[in-house]
Every structure is written in C-alpha cells, then in structure tokens.
Amino acid sequence: MVKLITTGTTAIATAVKHADVDVISAYPIRPYTGVMNELARMIADGEFDAEYIVADSEHTQFEIAKHAAACGARVFTGSAGIGWAFAHEPLVVTPADRVPVVAMVGNRALDDPGNFGVEHTETLITRDTGWMMCWPENPQEAYDLTLMGYKIAEDPSVLLPYVVCCDGNFITHVRFPVDLPDMETAREFLPPTPPPRVNVLHPDKPLSIAPHVDYYWGTEIRRQMEEGMRNAIEVTKRVHEEFYKVFGRGGPPFIEEIATEDADVALIGLGGMAMPARAAIAQLRSQGKKVGYIKLRRFRPFATEVIRDALKKFKVVAVLDNDFSFGSAFHGGIVFQEIRSALYDVSERPKVVNYLIGLGGREITVDAMRSIYNQVLEIAETGEVKKLVQWVGVRE
Amino acid sequence: MSWEKLEIRTLKDAPKDEYFVAGHRTCQGCGPALACKLIAKAAGPRAVVITATGCMYVANCSYNTTPWAIPWMHAQLGGIGSAVCGAAAAYKAMMRKGKLKKEEIHVIGLAGDGGAADIGLSGISGAMLSGEDHLIITYDNESYANTGVQASSLTPWGAWTTFTPPGKMLRLGNVRVKKDLPKMIAAGHPNVRYVATASTSFPFDLMTKVRKGLAVKGPAFLQVHTPCPKGWKFSPELTVRIGRLAVETGMWTLYEIEDGQFKLSYKPPKRKPVSEYLKLQGRFAHLREPDYRYIQEQVDAACKQLGID
After folding, report:
1. Structural domains in chain A?
2. B65-108 confidence digits (pLDDT tens)
3. Does residue A45 sit at the B interface (CB-CB below 8 Å)?
4. 3-class SS string, chain A
C-alpha cells in the first residue's frame, strides 16, 4: 500500500494499470485527458503493457474499445463533455453488444457556450442506453470504483459497459490523499484476465456478433439487456463486499449516508458535491441543526429500494442537480425526476424539492450549501414549499 | 501463412471451401455479395470479418441467418477503421501478454463506398496510421444502395441517384467527380505497404490481392469495384459483364501500390469506348452524346496518366 497525494486521473490510471488492461484508445479533451497522459507515460516507462491507440476522434475511441472488448481484451477509454457526445453512436450500441467496456468521464458542461466547468448533463443524457454509471466523491473513490468497474462489467450475468464520472477539474485535477495498493493486492481482488464469456470474436469458434435485428427479435434483445442491468444491482453489492474484504474500504454500493441518524432534512446529489455539503453540515450541526446528506454513488443501475428506504425517514429531501433537463416535468433536473418518482408510492413520503446548482460550471460553494440547508429546514418547519425547483445563485 | 500459396492464378489455385455461404437476402446479381464470397474464400478460416453498416450488413447478416462461416461482427457506419484497429490491437496485446495463444488471425474490415469514403474516412485514415495488422476492403458500388441509392463521394459524374436526380433544371444528375480513395490512402499514409484496386469480374486478381493485403505486415487497403443492379439499373445477369466493361473501358483500373511502387495489374489490349459501359446502365440513361464525349475525355486523360494507353 502506498499513500499518495494525487489526482483522480492518476488514481484511475493506476487502477487501469492494476487491471492489466490490454487496449487503450485515447483522444484529448479537457478535463479527462490527464488519465491518458499518465497511461501513456506508464506504458512508455514499461510499468505495464497495453496497446495504446492514438485515436482520431471520440467516435473512433469508443468504436475501438467496443471491438477490442468483443475480441476478449480488457479495455479502457474515456472522454468529457462534447467529446462524450461525439462518441454517442458507438457508445449507445455498446451495451447491446454485451461487451464490458470501462470508461472514465471528466464531467464537463456541454458547449455552447464554450465551457470548461463541471456539469453532469453530458453523461446523464446517456442514462437510458444501458451504461452503468457511478460518481466518485474523491480520487480514492475514483480508484476504487474503476477497479470495481471491471469486476462488475465482466460478470457473466451483467456484461454491460461501465463509466466512472468524475467532476471535471475537481476530482480530475485536485490532489487528495489516496491509498493505492500494490499490484499483487489489486490482482487478488481483480485477476488480470476477465472471466470467460461466449460472445468473443475468434476463429476457433466462429459466431456472428451484432447481426441486423429487426422487430422480430429486437424486443427480446432489449429485455436481455434489462436483465443484465437488473443483475448488476446484486453483482455490485457482492463486488463491494469482495472489495471490502481485500482493501477494508469501498463504502456501501449505492448510497452513503452522512450525518443522517437524527436528521430532519437531507440533501442528495452525485459526485464531489458531497464535499461542500460535509463542510456545511459541520457548521450547521454545531448550531444544533439536524441536517444530513445522501451521497448518490451510482445512478445506473438506480437502486430504487435502497434509495427509497434511505429517504423516507426525512421530512424534506432536496435533490441537488448539477445538470438540467430543459422542458422536463416541473422544469427540473434529471436526478430530481428519478428521486421524486422513486418516492411516489411511499405513504408518508418526504417533500422532495430540487436545487439546480453549478450549472454551466459555476463553483458549488459551502455558502450555497448552507443556504440550501436553511431553506430546506424552513420548509420542514412550515410545511410549505414556495418553489419546487430553485436555481441556485442565478442572476435574474 | 495458412494458405498453400499467395497467388491465385487459375481455378485450381482457388480453395474449394466457402466461408460466405447461402442464406442471405441480397439482390439477384449483387456485386458486393460476390465480393464477400471471393474475399472469404481467399482469406480462409483464420479470418475475422467486421462489416460496417451498409448492404453487406442489413441485407445479409440478419439475426439467425448469418452467411458468415468465419467470425463476423458489425461496426458502425463510420466505424470500420476503428473496429479493425481495435480487433487487431486486442489480438496483438493478448498474444504478446500471453493471454491468448499465439497464432495467425487475419482481421478484415469491409465497408461500402459511403462507409469508407464519406463517414468512415477519418477512422480509416487513423487505422492506416496505426501499427495494427489488418486489411480494410471497400466494396465500391458507387452509391448508398442500402438506403435507396443516394449519392456518395464515390458516385461517378453524370450518374442518377435519388439525391442527384436529373431534372428539367439540373440535367446531369451527379456533378461531383468520383473521389480517388485508394490514391488518397496511398499518398496520405506512406507507411502503408499495400494499397490495391480490384473488381469482382476479375476474381483471381481480387483473391490474390486479398491475400497480399493480409500477408503484408501492418495495415493494408483494397478497393473492389462491385456492380449493383439496383443502384445502377441493369438486369442482374449483367453484373460480371458490366464489371469487366468498366475495366476494359478504363472507367475502373486495376493496380497495386506495393511499398510505394505503382504497378498496373491489367492493361486492356484495346480500350473500349466508355459508351459501351454507360449505355448498359439506367443510371446514365439521361446522358447525351456530348456527355459521353466528356466522360471519354476524362477517362482518356486518366488512362494516359496511369500508363494504360
């Protein structure tokens, strides 16, 4: 075990090295590029061996990854913002091909307007296509969730692609203390070769993969993908247990509760937003305010029961969306839609409100978090929701 | 190499085994399907074929009815270069790292003219620059025939397509000049050791070129002229004749660029007039004598430059 002060990109590159990935396809776009820089350096220095393909676009990157995985290789690729959008064609067909591609995204606001800031919209618009999606809070979790990703994606009952979504500039670039295991310990958890599967392209066993399927079989194929995604819930739980046995960390698989024991209200959100929330909680708790936070670690699969059971005890739940769905129900965020829907059948359900925060890459501050908590506490006290969806800090 | 010899000069040299078999639903007289059959025959059982979206995906690789007796996979319309690059990289890395038995695997990518020369051009260029070992083959039927015959950048000047219909105002149909894809590949990627053109009407030459493209280390490129009864509007029994006429008139030329050296594969003893080729096809039916003369002039100049005349 080595304790390093390092970034999420270096942590993920180390996970890729530990996974003994065979094929990497790279194309630059901020803020994810650092992971590819680091992997290129590792390969050049002989730290591990992989075919590193300098691709000509994100479309190419994801097509390379899909086909290399179809040939049985362990693969890694990634992108950010509009790059992820450009890759969408190969990206959306990868789940149906049932190949365990693992990717990283450095979350970035979609252009136009040109923007380097963090937004989760680019990956959340892929939520309906069959990719498993997770959001680490810090570089440590970025390493952990990447290594776990291979094990979950390659499970014969899952075989779906997996993306680790990292808040751009923060998780990708800010240095944190990270425990990085040695290669041997990592491989005790994840062997260098994936478990055997039937859909591998090889002359010894000819088969046709991804043939043209029309309405006659299309429904059944969608259904099989759906089973893979459902199975991923149990597999993810098991992989977290296995991870804990080897490393003694990893946290619960889907959500992590922060200061929720006696809390009246809770905020819930993806990724690094948990950090300013933790700071706000510490301040508010010292004033005797009963506030908590739920860190949504994985968005696909969406662990409905787990999330519902965790949230039903609060008076008010505020969903933080660093994303937006224009023209959606209540004109709110994407995570809001799902959380609100998950609580619909609970008889004594909390009020669920939505805060759109950090849109267009604006910084998410402790002050903003504290202000949200105070507003939510007021709702808990009065029982009155003045505005269901709030834009945080917007100049109007 | 899994083949007894590289060159196929006569029927005796050609293997009897078929790896692209019956059970598909391409049109009668389909040139691209004939190309698939010859390519698979020449490549043999150690080949892995990836096909980009197009007729050779939609019309012949339907679920549960695959005609491929060797491993086959679909790639996105613009993804053929990336797909073969990924496949070749996977085998190479896994064999080097001892994860896969070291043995011969030939990676072949098939894309139509639209998939190769339009939407997939960037990816093919990337694949040609890569050090990966694969052969990309364009089956050139000079239009997006699968979607209902739309113009591609390999559609010849003067051809009718549904995107370039001859009309009262626009008399000529397609007025874009056919892109010279193999020369682009050869000129732009000096590391590529084998670039060639072929025709389904010259099967031995085609099969030999498939093997040469696979035998060479690193990426290779082959463009096969494949007449299309649907898109070119001719009767299905004329496929082979029309393919031959294309070469005999100089509308299509057969050559190899091996390690940068250009070499004609076939020189018609006496070139036939282009009108013999054009008049058999409904897609050129709207052209008039001056148009034939214009095409003849262009072809004459090209043939002179290539050393055919």
Report:
1. 2-247 (3.40.50.970), 255-391 (3.40.50.920)
2. 889 999 999 999 999 999 999 999 999 999 999 999 999 999 99
3. no
4. CEEEEECHHHHHHHHHHHCCCCEEEECCCCCCCHHHHHHHHHHHCCCCCCEEEECCCHHHHHHHHHHHHHCCCCEEEEECHHHHHHCHHHHHHHHHHCCCCEEEEEECCCCCCCCCCCCCHHHHCCCCCCCEEECCCCHHHHHHHHHHHHHHHCCCCCCCCEEEEEECCCCCCCCEEEEECCHHHHHHHCCCCCCCCCCCCCCCCCCEECCECCHHHHHHHHHHHHHHHHHHHHHHHHHHHHHHHHHCCCCCCCEEEECCCCCCEEEEEEHHHHHHHHHHHHHHHHCCCCEEEEEECEEECCCHHHHHHHHCCCCEEEEEECCCCCCCHHHCCHHHHHHHHHCCCCCCCCEEEEEECCHHHCCCCHHHHHHHHHHHHHHHHHCCCCCCEEECCCCC
